[in-house]
Design goal:
The protein is mainly alpha-helical. It has eight helices and three strands. A three-stranded antiparallel beta sheet has the order 1-2-3. The chain is globular, with a radius of gyration of 15 Å.
Amino acid sequence: MNIPFLDKWRRRHSATDGAEGLAAAFEEDPDGVAALLSECELLRSQASAAGFELDDSPASLAALDQLLPRWRDDPELLPWLGNDAGLYLGSVVVRTVPGATWHVWPGGSPVVRLRTGRDIHVVEAGLDWAVQGAPQLSQVYGEASET
């Protein structure tokens, strides 16, 4: 994937300020950062191995909620899969809930901002889902779509 803002950012920033760099990159190229956040390759491969493709729809969130959590046996996989689940949840919300947008806090944390101004900490929700199974991704989506 060609992401032009990444090359510019790498030239201007050291590896030590990566979190702030994401916020700066988001200010420069929000669509590019949104595309990067929506990739979720690990989660997509897990879904594919389970026999379905993620189509960026609310129904796919419900399908993810039904997966057997085999990843919980691999402590190294858990945080990565949880992160992907949260970013995928955010991508679905942004694509389907009117007025929802990505927002990156100065510290580098991506959240989804609803039209009401409420921020949804999608990565935290994804990590909770991966580790504990709750809240379900479809439940977080349902709450976001009600506002």
